Amino acid sequence: ENERQLPFFDLSTIVTATDNFSLANKLGQGGFGPVYKGRLCNGQEIAVKRLSKTSGQGMEEFKNEVMLIAKLQHRNLVKLRGCCIQEEEKMLIYEYMPNKSLDSFIFDQIRKALLDWTKRFEIIVGIARGVLYLHQDSRLRIIHRDLKASNVLLDAEMNPKISDFGMARIFGGNQTQANTNRVVGTYGYMSPEYAMDGLFSIKSDVFSFGVILLEIISGKRNNGFYHEDRFLNLIKHTWDFWSEDRALDLVDSSMAGSYSAHEVLRCIHVGLLCVQESARDRPPMSTVIFMLGNETTLPPPKQPAFMLGGNHNGPLSSSSGTGPCSINEKLVVVYTLYKLVGGTCDNAPEGGEVERDWERDPIRNSTFSECK
Ligand SMILES: Nc1ncnc2c1ncn2[C@@H]1O[C@H](COP(=O)(O)OP(=O)(O)OP(=O)(O)O)[C@@H](O)[C@H]1O
């Protein structure tokens, strides 16, 4: 029992559990490194994230962060069971989620049919509750910073569980610069103030949540989205439909019309409130949950931030021939274009919540300011 409280696993335990990190057990490759499925000798299934060796963080810091994060518990968070450290190797051990990630359902032509409206609505509310816990209810106040459909895993009952929370802290340093592909793959979910100015706050998570919500309803990715031969993104698409009073045209056709139009419209409305251009206008997660579950009058959404998605073969590819241009180059282009067509740039989140990547103290990282 004593051992169970310590979240440290022996390397030999993990080697046995994963059959020496066999290819057959590899679940996938994320920006932090490969992930393996494992089975402990008591039969419990685990997922092992083997961190690439680029982390600059010391072992003691790493252990401390894992101990803090492992204490967070909520039915909509993937449980971090602990870690395994051996010389230069660092691994994170999570509970295993048999249904993989949300993106493997909502963007898959066959599997998306398994998600009817009731289930999709439950998933939306579940994600919202998980994020609220991170923002408000846990001992540590956590801004996730990388909320996206592939970071929402599904358990055996298809309950959504958020993963990868606390990675900024666990991984140390600036996680978004750990891997370029990672950034490119993720920025369809980034709020404009985070993408452009490195400002993150609970409101940048709200923005990402709004994108996931719209993706769940439409079955389309915010990035790399084409419509009638035009490169569009889902946010712009939603806004256009909404403005033309035909928001239901957004709904994933695999739901075959069997949904409550009233509920769907309300959800789209909430999604649009979450992706508003100005962080200040976006509701906090507590309000989001209230709005999803109650018949209150919602304020009209203001124009969202129209960021183009993360398709680096898309119209913003570098022409230099030296590989894709940097994320910031692309975003500057997009954002400048956006401003030229009349968007405003009043993006500063409320005072006190604004944090800048480059000003963060990597140890006493304010993403995790302790709550009283
Ligand atoms: N606890 C888990 N249970 C089951 N599968 C998991 C678990 N954690 C991760 N996976 C799977 O492992 C793969 C890699 O996951 P990971 O979170 O590292 O990367 P990602 O979300 O694809 O990208 P990123 O690192 O940018 O977040 C994904 O296919 C994911 O579904």
UniProtKB/TrEMBL annotation:
Membrane protein topology class: Single-pass membrane protein
Compositional bias of kind Basic and acidic residues: 353-363
Chain ranges passing through the membrane: none
GO molecular function, one term: protein serine/threonine kinase activity
UniProt keywords, alphabetically: ATP-binding, Cell membrane, Disulfide bond, Glycoprotein, Kinase, Membrane, Nucleotide-binding, Receptor, Serine/threonine-protein kinase, Signal, Transferase, Transmembrane, Transmembrane helix
CDD domains: STKc_IRAK
Protein kinase domain segment(s): 21-272
InterPro entries cross-referenced by the UniProt entry: Kinase-like_dom_sf (IPR011009), Prot_kinase_dom (IPR000719), Ser-Thr/Tyr_kinase_cat_dom (IPR001245), Ser/Thr_kinase_AS (IPR008271)
Alphabetical list of SUPFAM superfamilies matching this protein: Protein kinase-like (PK-like)
Protein name stated in the entry: Protein kinase domain-containing protein
Organism per entry: Tetracentron sinense (Spur-leaf)
Highest classification ranks of the organism: Eukaryota, Viridiplantae, Streptophyta, Embryophyta, Tracheophyta
